[in-house]
UniProtKB/TrEMBL annotation, chain A:
Protein name: Azurin
Annotated Blue (type 1) copper domain residues: 28-131
Organism (species): Siphonobacter aquaeclarae
GO molecular function: copper ion binding; electron transfer activity
Gene3D superfamilies for this protein: Cupredoxins - blue copper proteins
Keywords assigned by UniProt, alphabetized: Copper, Electron transport, Metal-binding, Transport
Pfam families: Copper-bind
TrEMBL record, chain B:
This protein's name: Glucose/arabinose dehydrogenase, beta-propeller fold
Swiss-Prot/TrEMBL keywords: Signal
PANTHER family, alphabetized: LARGE, MULTIFUNCTIONAL SECRETED PROTEIN, LARGE, MULTIFUNCTIONAL SECRETED PROTEIN-RELATED
Matching InterPro entries: 6-blade_b-propeller_TolB-like, Quino_amine_DH_bsu, Quinoprot_gluc/sorb_DH_b-prop
Extent of the signal sequence: 1-17
């Protein structure tokens, strides 16, 4: 710190205002800083404000050019009380340990060279860092920058690796987190093009889309806080106010309980209870058009209660029969019935 | 990536070596346990969720992207069993056709009903707990007791993220404040699933209970991670109805007043809680202790029969915990177990029928590594601490091989404690050297009775042993042992 002050005092007064740089850098989930690299003018006085958006503690240490690994190894011997920062001439500046949600700033001066900023919390320093270029020269393109942390390089990698050790076969199913459904959602694609989201917490079809399946990359890459992305266009969404199955009377919305699913030729059949009635539901693609068919089978109905289907939105009930209550409410005439869902 | 792993490995070994008081040359311990890498199917992202062994000797492993694989060690072949599972961090193999898997939304019975080697039926065993979609609501277990009950543990949510617009379970705003929170049931609890299929709240006060295991004495052990309300990482002996210190989960306790538990005075919470059996000093012993397993190999894995081993995420070593009953409660020591070639990220452990220990590694967003390693005992018994028990005047240390001598200058002891408070982690408080008043070695050289100037409950007693040698001059392997002294004899 004294050294920094000294440097500042020796610096030409007139240059201070022009070469001062203040940057906010965030520690984010996945052992990384949000800035992959930093460029400042040589001779400038730099203030870095570290804001910790992660759920674990971090610090930020600026190291002399080429000294990052050495400092990280030195830091392994340093206690938490000293913020895991070694007393070393290789350290240009350092914050204290910044707990989640807190922030801390450091100010230092740099001469021409490629410095590093790194978290020296034990183990982090091999992963969580970036180059700080004090130069007026142009930097290499980001994708080709050899000084970036591997985690950043991985993210920039233009070539997309296959998701699994096998080619995904269709129909395909993932339990994952998607928008517009509960955290117990299941997504299924018939063919990589026609897909739907069925919600195990609510035992109902939530929405259907066409043009692709899901992109799980962010969900997988993050700690899990990011959604899987729906790839394509949603053509149908449930009416969230109307649970479609009614038991006993057209107004009675049953309690639901998810029991599981069975795969046949990779296509799932969902099992669930509506009150005490066990229903199996299989969804199949409508060949040659956008849409799907929901087939219901009542496999157990101990009290032989009537089952109604409230076909809100666009849909067609099969077998076409009486619509006793009007407005899309059908009485299931047998233990199997189906409903086509179209845009 | 490979380069990084090697780098991590080298640095890790170096760091491990530095934990020895005197960084002696290679000790026999470095080759007493050796880790080998198990090659994964090309293209598989090797973030392991959980591992177990099938009765037929095959390994079963879950991976982050939803795969469940079987692995035949004899042929080194992998078989894809199931896909599409969400973050399964717990697994229990019943047979080659039936696996219990704890994923995000439920405990699922995954079965192959047509005998083609692939799972085709996924039945809910229980989903009777809440989830908000917060990423930190991990689920751990199941482990079974002798009566056929299963136990699972539910992680609290993290204020590193919010909750989804739709949640499962009753939302309770009183559980929402705080760094780690519990706004749906029963986050921060250990749950008991009885054979009738009902899930019962069992014990509470957990933050990140990764993960559970029964020890050889039938005690239910749970590790919990340093953070808010945990000054350092801990191992608990879990008993029904008890509260273990992280307050958020109190909102789901029957009869608990309708109040935000964070408004209670710390002293009140402190008086309610059951202390940990073992505290793992943060940074150099453990940052994130993981799965406890028992060495039931009957000597195939070395001299530590029936002892409990614990995985550790941030270090390239495992931990041994030595527990005993003092004053009606369990307490004890932790000791690093050095393994040559071990990576970090040692989240999941399972013993194979041949007595080798398999390790599933992950680094999802935190420190660690990826892949599976198999640890074999080479058959050489290193000179090591075998046991550590409390006496009325100090500690009794037993060794795997006879010591040549036990001069008291080679026993350095200090004590300190970590604070129980709302803040994230804790520094060490009242760190004080403890005078070793005497060391008496038994005639067979296997037991050293260490008497101390004082024994103060509520402190961790940290032993650092110097260059003790065995009868044939062999050096001591583990030199660090930390005993959590809740009660004196």
């Amino acid at each position: 710190m004294y050294r920094t002050l000294l440097l500042l005092c020796l610096g030409p007064l007139w240059a201070w205002g022009q070469s001062d740089t203040t940057l906010v850098i965030k520690a984010i989930a996945g052992m990384q800083y949000d800035l992959p690299r930093i460029q400042v003018k040589p001779g400038s006085r730099v203030t870095l404000i570290l804001e910790n958006y992660d759920d674990m503690a971090h610090n930020l240490v600026v190291t002399r050019p080429g000294a990052r690994l050495t400092v990280v190894e030195q830091a392994l011997k340093v206690t938490a009380e000293k913020n895991y920062v070694p007393e070393s001439p290789l350290v240009v500046a350092s914050t204290k340990i910044v707990i989640p949600g807190a922030s801390e700033q450091v100010t230092f001066r740099v001469e021409e060279g490629t410095y590093s900023y790194v978290c020296t919390y034990p183990g982090h320093g091999f992963i969580m860092y970036g180059p700080l270029y004090a130069t007026s020269k142009p930097l290499p393109p980001l994708a080709k920058d050899p000084n970036l942390a591997p985690i950043v390089k991985e993210k920039l990698g233009a070539k997309k690796e296959p998701a699994h050790a096998f080619a995904l076969e269709y129909p395909a199913l993932y339990r994952t987190w998607v928008p517009g459904a509960s955290p117990a959602a299941i997504v299924v694609s018939f063919d990589g093009n026609s897909s739907y989201c069925w919600d195990a917490a609510q035992c109902r079809l939530r929405y259907a889309w066409t043009g692709g399946f899901v992109d799980n990359e962010e969900q997988w890459y993050s700690k899990g806080d990011k959604y899987s992305k729906i790839v394509g266009e949603t053509y149908w969404k449930e009416d969230s106010l109307n649970y479609p199955l009614r038991v006993g009377s057209p107004d009675h919305i049953p309690q639901v309980r998810f029991l599981g699913y069975k795969l046949k030729d990779r296509l799932p059949t969902f099992r669930y209870l509506i009150d005490d009635i066990e229903v199996h539901e299989t969804l199949t693609a409508l060949p040659g058009e956008i849409g799907l068919v929901r087939r219901f089978a009542v496999v157990r109905n101990p009290s032989s209660r009537k089952i109604y289907f409230h076909a809100s939105g666009k849909g067609s009930f099969v077998p076409t029969g009486a619509d006793p209550a009007g407005s899309g409410l059908f009485l299931a005439q047998s233990t199997t019935f189906s409903l086509a869902v179209r845009p | 990536m490979k380069k990084i792993l090697i780098l991590l490995l080298l640095t890790g070994l170096k760091a491990a070596a530095q934990h020895h008081h005197h960084a002696a040359a290679v000790t026999p311990g470095d080759t007493a346990w050796v880790a080998e890498n198990i090659p994964l199917p090309p293209g598989l992202k090797g973030e392991v969720g959980a591992i177990d062994f099938l009765p037929d000797g095959r390994l079963v492993a879950t991976f982050h992207r939803g795969e469940i694989y079987f692995y035949q060690p004899k042929t080194a072949r992998w078989y894809l069993f199931a896909e599409g599972i969400h973050d399964a961090l717990g697994i229990k193999a019943i047979s080659a056709k039936e696996i219990l898997v704890l994923q995000r939304a439920e405990l699922t019975r995954v079965r192959d009903t047509d005998g083609d080697g692939k799972a085709d039926d996924f039945a809910v065993v229980t989903d009777d707990f809440g989830m908000t979609g917060n990423y930190h609501e991990f689920n751990f277990g199941p482990v079974a007791d002798a009566k056929g009950n299963l136990y699972i543990a539910l992680n609290t949510a993290s204020n590193g993220a919010g909750i989804r617009p739709e949640v499962r379970g009753t939302y309770n705003p009183l559980g929402r404040p705080g760094r780690m929170y519990s706004c749906v049931p029963y986050r921060g609890w250990v749950m008991k699933l009885t054979p009738d299929g009902k899930l019962h709240p069992y014990a509470l006060g957990f933050r990140s209970p990764n993960t559970l295991g029964f020890d050889a004495a039938g005690r239910l052990l749970v590790c919990d991670n340093q953070g808010d309300w945990l000054g350092t990482s801990k191992l608990y002996v879990v008993k029904e109805g008890r509260f273990y210190g992280h307050p958020a989960s109190l909102v789901w306790k029957e009869g608990f007043p309708k109040t935000d538990p964070l408004t209670l005075p710390v002293a009140t919470l402190d008086s309610m809680r059951t202390r940990e059996a073992v505290a793992f000093p943060h940074g150099y012993v453990a940052n994130s202790p993981a799965q406890p397993v028992v060495d039931r190999t009957g000597g195939k894995f070395g001299p530590f029969r029936n002892q409990t081993l614990v995985g550790e995420m941030d270090h390239p070593f495992l931990l041994r915990v030595l527990l005993e009953e003092v004053g009606g409660e369990t307490q004890g020591a932790c000791i690093p177990l050095y393994v040559h070639g071990l990576r970090r990220g040692n989240n999941r452990l399972a013993f194979a029928p041949d007595g080798s220990l398999w390790v599933g590694q992950t680094d999802r967003g935190w420190v660690g590594s990826e892949g599976i390693q198999r640890i074999r005992w080479t058959g050489k018994t290193p000179l090591d601490i075998a046991g550590m028990t409390l006496t009325s005047k100090g500690f009794s240390l037993t060794f795997t091989r006879p010591l040549k001598s036990a001069p008291k200058e080679l026993f350095a002891v200090k004590r300190f404690y970590y604070e129980y408070h709302r803040e994230y982690g804790s520094k060490k408080f009242d760190e004080t050297p403890v005078t070793v008043t005497g060391v008496t070695l038994s005639p067979d050289g296997l037991r050293a009775e260490v008497t101390l100037g004082e024994l103060k409950p509520g402190y961790i007693y940290e032993f650092r042993l110097g260059d003790l040698v065995g009868k044939v001059g062999e050096p001591l392997l583990s030199r660090l042992a930390c005993y959590t002294l809740n009660k004196v004899r």
